[in-house]
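Archive maintenance. Older records in this collection stored only the sequence; we are now back-filling the structure field for every entry so that each record is complete. The fields below show one back-filled record exactly as it appears after the update. Entries are processed alphabetically, and Beta-galactosidase is next in the queue.

ARCHIVE ENTRY
Title: Beta-galactosidase
Organism field: Deinococcus seoulensis
Length field: 680
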Amino acid sequence: MTQADAHPFHLLLGTCDYPEHVPQDRPPVYARMQRDLGLSFVRLAEFAWSRLEPLPGTFEWGWLDDAVEAYHAEGLRVVLCTPTPTPPAWLIRAHPEILAFDDQGRVREFGSRRHYDFASPVFREHSRRITRAIAERYGQHPAVAGWQTDNEFGCHATSRSYGGASAARFPEWLRAKYGTLDALNAAWGNVFWSMEYTDWEQVRPPILTVTEVNPSHVLDYNRFASDMIREFQAEQVELLRELSPGRFVTHNFMIFESGFDHYDVARGLDFVTWDNYPTGMLELFAPPGIGEDLRTRYARTGHPDLVGFNHDLYRGLLSGGERLGRDGAGTPNGPWVMEQQCGQVNWAPYNPMPASGAVALWTAQAWAHGADVVSYFRWRAATMAQEVMHSGLLRHDETPDRGFAEVAALDQTAFPVGPVPARVALLHDYESLWIYDQQPHAQGLNYWTQTVTYYMALRRLGIDVDVIHADADLSGYAVVVAPAITLVSAGRAARWTEAVNAGAQLVCGPRTAFRTPGGETWPDGQFGPLSELVGARLLQYDSLRPTLRQTVSGADDLSGTFGASTWAESYRLNGAQALAHYQGGPLDGQAAVIRRGNVTVIGAHSDTLIGAVLEGVLGAAGVPVLPVPEGVRVSRRAGQLLVQNWNPEAVDWNGTTLPPVSFVVRPDDAGQPLEGEQDA
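Back-filled structure field:
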């Protein structure tokens, strides 16, 4: 076998399987079927603690031994999980202090999953113990390619516990950060409403107050809770590195999960994975602004840009450094989709059957946005408990379902792994998310809505996008877009200024640099440390109810009239020039879009205005645009171009008829423009 055969440099596929759910004679049968389907990986055991350790200290490995050997015999690579998302009943009843508290101060009981507090020292001890046990058993097994820690941190609003162990640990965390109560009181502005503390033990989690909670208190509690997740995972990673050298370690993150700083938690992993459920995402996780018209149109595929944004976000969580790949050192180490929807889901308000072709389309899109492996959830539909209505590649009776046929028809060699050639960076920051959403000031608008609106505008222009941290290295990007980075430190402002001085175009959205790192406003107002770079300060902001709109009138390079909803802010100019003004209403005549050199700020929430401004900025930066029809998207990777049609009907575009819910892969002609591609 050649090195290329052993480690192919194209997309590989896998599945999530549950040998603990079926008779012991099934894994050998399933393994043969998975091999024949062209799968390479199988994920196991994330919820299996009660079967692995049915009584304290009593382990039953036989069923998992047999399953691992069955998959190994058919040449599949195994991804094993630490089973900590589901501590068993014997552990919870012996140590109820493990349980978390919700934001109403109630204990979250045993009986489903993720029923633990990350700060619990008792649970941390048992997490290390079960991790060590499973890693000692399988860490050197030749079938084991790598490990997944726990499962879906934050799912079901479990990133933060508001009582118990977390409540006890929080004052200690604050003391380490601030040193003195005077420093804490000053940082939080506790003199307001007489909220000052005189003892660390007086500080509690920020819930159940009579009216609004202090936003700085919330911001620090969110930072604290995120640190607990980081610490919890780091303990597992350390053990897995020790006992299973040469195998990757990853975690499967969630759709639009906001409860912790993913960049911080991802450090120490080899690559990240995420769980992609496009139709469920559209129904349950879509940000405000995705209305019923879009939910109906894309009910059977999900919206391309909601899925695409999450792909790009998770591709950008890790950068630089030597990390293991999907089959060890020197093998591809891009992100995975650890759980890819392959039929109906069971957990959204509505769970329509995916369109014919959707599973293949989702797989192709994942590859084009950087995924090296797509793993389908699940192999066989569950015949028991909470997920009996959730589809698998096999139906309940073990016959192949619709998604199985689409996977079987895929040519994996058509999807080479390699870089995504993005020249545009979109900046993202969880701390800005937390503080923005604590005081959104406009119903129907939040951090994700504002951020995704800019992302969608770029994708409608045919642009590949890197979603990266607001403090990431910006060298090499022609355009940097900061849609909603409301929290800007002096250091962050300096990095952005350096990028602009090096020639990058910077585009900022409303509320940029409104906050200090502590959550207050800057004493000299927005834009704080960015004021000189921007050449302006905030004049007014207008929070618009749904029945109110603002009109923005552009001139010169930004001609036209645009309607704005939800939010509008205007500026006092100090070196910047106005590209557009408000027309009518209380902001009449005030600057709505401003520019100073390479820096542009858009003050109104308007998808058409954002698209027009971005098209002009891309042109100034020499980045070709390719405007695409509604529901059509293009993505580039490894010298290939993926053209996607997410519409329920055929689309004629650029001389080609794209069938409904379909894709085409073709060479990218070494970067030559497509027909219709243009400098903006």
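Update note: Residues 670-680 have pLDDT under 50 and may be disordered. The first helix runs from residue 3 to 6.
Entry marked complete.
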